Amino acid sequence: MSTVQRKAEHIRICLESDVQFQTQGSGFDRYQFQHSCLPELDYQQLDLTTNLLGKQLGAPILMSSMTGGTNQAKEINYRLAEVAQAYNLAMGVGSQRVAIEQPQVADTFQVRQVAPDILLLANLGAVQLNYKYGIDECRRSVELLGADALILHLNPLQECIQPHGDTNFKGLLDRIASVCQQLPVPVIVKEVGNGISAQMATQLIAAGVSAIDVAGAGGTSWAKVESERAQTALQRRLGTTFADWGIPTTQCITSIREISPTIPLIASGGIRNGLDIAKAIALGADVAGLALPFLQAADISSTAVAELVEILQAEIQTVLFCTGSANLSALRASDCLLPLR
């Protein structure tokens, strides 16, 4: 199966099948904000702005890396980018390996013409650095988009299950460090939905990564997605067995913040509304990433994407107001998020 066909299947499965975690959640339901009945704030003056990698964002929202390589993916990316530009949000694209190897589909990723000012993140699978990719391909990915940073995603479980997966991860940390040293833009390392531990984050920070996207367990299970695409009984069995494998998103956030108070931290994995975003910020994240909710909206229209952003922002503002937090820094510095007993 070609990479383009695989991209199309991934979109179809995520939109049509139940491939979410079942027995393990992201962990946000284990926390609750303490309500302030007298916030002493003007709701209209609440500030949702934040900074990530030197760029100011209108809200702590990242349209997480999803897709590219097909006509449907192009429409989705353009709809997302238009809204990201309108609201000054960050956006990542799906893996650009298909664009590197098949330049005729590069335009499905190239959204700068509709989003000239956003924080835009290029994306490659880190494991490709063990399969003849190097700094040249990383540069091409960034230049192809006019991107502000490069995501190197880690997906060992997905590679174990998907047909013809790339499973040689040996020596990959040193290769990531080499890219960090040579690439002229920041490098972000992210998982794809199984989480990054504090121990692994320590090694990645030492390697020179500029930010970490935890992409924890609790959202879309790529083991389930690949199980849906399985060509053998073994692949299907592996996808079922490891459907809920991973570190919950909240555990990733708190444990990484303990070992590094300053590394820019993106929370993703099972974030489904503005309340989850606010909890992620209160736990120590700088920005929260959402994929499936934006994919579902972008499959409908740009208007649906804009409506989703309006809802997310209103939910975050409501948390700020009802906790007495004038801005995101105040929310993060407060002790108003309590673990449930």
Describe this structure in words.
With 341 residues, this protein is of the alpha/beta class. It is 43% helix and 13% strand. The protein has 14 helices and twelve strands. The strands form three sheets. An eight-stranded parallel β-barrel has the order 4-5-6-7-8-9-10-11, surrounded by seven helices. The protein has a two-stranded antiparallel ribbon with strand order 1-12. The longest helix is centred in the C-terminal third of the chain and has 22 residues, at 302-323.
Give a quick summary of the entry.
By secondary structure, this protein is of the alpha/beta class. It contains 14 helices and 12 strands.
- Determine the mean pLDDT: 97
**Shape estimate:** globular
Give the number of helices.
14
Proportion of helical residues: 40-55%
Helices and strands, with pairings:
Blueprint: H1 3-16, E1 31-33, E2 50-52, E3 55-57, E4 61-63, H2 71-87, E5 90-92, H3 97-101, E6 120-125, H4 135-145, E7 149-154, H5 156-161, H6 172-182, E8 187-191, H7 198-207, E9 211-213, H8 222-228, H9 233-241, H10 249-259, E10 265-268, H11 274-283, E11 287-290, H12 292-298, H13 302-323, H14 328-333, E12 337-339
Parallel strand pairs: 4-5, 4-11, 5-6, 6-7, 7-8, 8-9, 9-10, 10-11
Antiparallel strand pairs: 1-12, 2-3
Helix pairs in contact: 2-13, 6-7, 7-10, 8-9, 11-13, 12-13
